[in-house]
Amino acid sequence: IESHMGQSHSSPDPLWEKAVHIAETNFHWIPGTIVDKEVVLNEAGQTEETSEKYIELYMSKSEGIQMRLIRALFNGKDVTRDEKENNENISLLKQEGPENPFLAGRQNNITYTKIPDTVWVEKTPCCLFSYRQTEDGITWQGKAWLNYHNGIPVKIKYHTTDTINEDNLTLNNLSGTILFSHSDPGKWVPKKISYSMDIKTKVFPFYTF
Fold first, then answer.
1. Per-position b or e across 142-181, b if 16+ CB within 10 A of its CB
2. How many CB atoms are located within 10 Å of the residue 117 CB?
3. Which of 65, 123, 124, 127 is deepest in the core (most CB within 10 A)?
């Protein structure tokens, strides 16, 4: 097992370095359509609410990346009209933080360990890396599966045991999994993102999900 620390390490792993280069050269890609599905569970594990959003992304010459809500469902009911009047709830997916441990500018915040055994993921021979990343005082632990031959990231999983405070919410046990797709001539993009967390509100009523 080989251990490395960010870009400052005297001999960074060449496969990880390839993944960093791939992420940098593909940073400009955006999805044409995002399907965002959320399920909120209570403490007993029962479904409290479900929501789905279908969002189209497009490029404007004058204003850059723009979003257009196509359809929205809440507990199976069509709420598209209401959501179009409340566009601040639509968040643009950004390749930052734990969702992308390969950002070149953040390599000094990451330590990783390479496990040389070959693992097959998505019908691809991969090398497994275990990594630790610190961002804004939050420590993330994760695993990354890189194509054994060319370093293309195939899958990552990450989690944190730290508490995250965001507006009127407290987030705990946040974890996520991302599967990537790659096609010639070198386009590398997220294919499927799933995540889970425990949420507690800081305003009355004090719900815990």
1. bbbbbbbeebbbbbbebbbeeeeeeeeeeeeebbbbbbbe
2. 8
3. 127
CA max distance for the chain: 57
Burial tier of 122 (Cβ tally within 10 Å: 0-12, 13-18, 19+): middle
- Residue 169 and residue 205: Cα distance in Å, rounded? 12
Length of the chain: 209
* For residue 9, pLDDT beyond 50: no
Tokens of 207: 């719900």
Mean pLDDT (the chain, rounded): 81
Secondary structure of residue 208 in the 3-state scheme: strand
Give me Rg for the CA atoms of the chain.
Answer: 19
Q: What is the pTM of this model?
A: 0.71
**Lowest-confidence segment of 60-69, 129-138, 173-182 by average pLDDT:** 60-69
Cα angle 43, 47, 51; round to 5: 125
Question: E strands along 43-123, which residues?
Answer: 47-60, 64-74, 77-78, 110-121
Cα(91)–Cα(71) distance, integer angstroms: 15
